[in-house]
Amino acid sequence: MWQLYQFPLCPFSRKLRLLLGEKGVGHELVRESPWMKRDEFVDMNPAGQTPVLVEPARGITLIDSGAICEYFEETVEKSPMIPGSAAQRAEVRRLAAWFDDRLYAEVVEPLLNERMKKRLVTRDAPDTRVLRDAMRVANAHLDYLDYLLDHRRWLAGPVLSLADLAAAAHLSVADYLGGIDWRGHKQTTDWYSVMKSRPSFRPLLAERMEVIAPPAHYDKVDFF
Amino acid sequence: MWQLYQFPLCPFSRKLRLLLGEKGVGHELVRESPWMKRDEFVDMNPAGQTPVLVEPARGITLIDSGAICEYFEETVEKSPMIPGSAAQRAEVRRLAAWFDDRLYAEVVEPLLNERMKKRLVTRDAPDTRVLRDAMRVANAHLDYLDYLLDHRRWLAGPVLSLADLAAAAHLSVADYLGGIDWRGHKQTTDWYSVMKSRPSFRPLLAERMEVIAPPAHYDKVDFF
């Protein structure tokens, strides 16, 4: 059985859990707080980041959420998440990287720093200016999603793909931390309602991070 | 013919140029300075980053260096750069991401900011503390390369791969900017000499960025 080292609000672990869920790959969760820099974890992954996926019986350790998603795309035929022609696959990967790099750095990471790490680790008060900036940029990201969904059924094209999983994973963490104002983004809220109702997404939405509570709409498919 | 939007010291463009060179994919270079935020370029790539690869005749635009490398790995059989079993391919992708994320953020990006952008754009003096930190971390990265090369012929395993191209691309930019002290890293210098002597690498080493000159050893295969 695969063991997934993760913590509930890690967006990269969430992306991977969505992919494993869609593909029906069984796994058990191992709680890891990367900010604790546990020696055994850093020995396993020199980058010190979640997710790490281990299959002890077969001696396999997989590191880096992008590399792990590609691994399961190659080894599990069910529910292709990087589908289509080479050009369509490039578009899926472009968008997944966009969400993993930009949406994460500009929105999710500052929210995690201010609302989770400061609460759990340093016990400082959150910096309201950083939070305001993150929420402003989040709005621009939702505009871009609206634009994509004006032209396409799913974010990267006509079918569900890793781009949708990555966007939903990052947005779900930002939403948990109160960083998303969904008003005025009809296309994106419709899409996110559909994502939230997928069986792969339900277990994530049911989880809670100790000490930090999500807003009331967080796990509601219809936002109300 | 593919048109590659890039600038000489963009490490992600260099990685891609090495891959195109190894695979024998013809392309012409189009000079782009992403910090100028040229409207037509941002319209092409909302991320505003190089490299972007365009094939006007076929109406294809490829964005994100990782996605582009995967595209050519899928479409050009010659010289596989993500070779081996699924687990070996995961290791190639883990290391390529490590160099693209960590080596870039901790070493190459600060060097580019201090020694290129400040020179070309803001005309401020470089921050010597930032430069010292980047060079210190560069040394730790070379230690990790030494460790990998103690156990393997190439960085990700027994054969040349995208991991080698990514590492060499980032190190070549850091080296151009005077940020690498190669002393005491025998395994890595031996490996880098071999990389430098590859036909795919020679055109990159011959290029110069206006105003900024590399150290004397920069394009010498034997470092002297």
> What share of the residues of chain A does DSSP label as strand, in percent?
5-15%
Provide the domain count of chain A: 2
Q: Give the structural class of chain A.
A: alpha+beta
Largest interface: A-B, 25 and 25 residues
Helix content of chain A: 40-55%
Please state the average pLDDT score of chain A: 96
What's the overall geometry of chain A? globular
Number of strands of chain A: 4
Order of helices and strands of chain A: EHEHEEHHHHHH
CATH structural architecture of the largest domain in chain A? Up-down Bundle
Oligomer: homodimer
What is the radius of gyration of chain A? 17 Å
Q: Which topology of the largest domain in chain A does CATH recognise?
A: Glutathione S-transferase Yfyf (Class Pi), Chain A, domain 2
Distance between termini of chain A? 37 Å
**Largest beta sheet of chain A, briefly?**
4 strands, mixed
Unreliable spans of chain A are: none
- Physical arrangement of strands within the biggest beta sheet of chain A: 2-1-3-4
Number of helices of chain A: 8
Please report the first level of CATH classification, the CATH class of the largest domain in chain A. Answer: Mainly Alpha
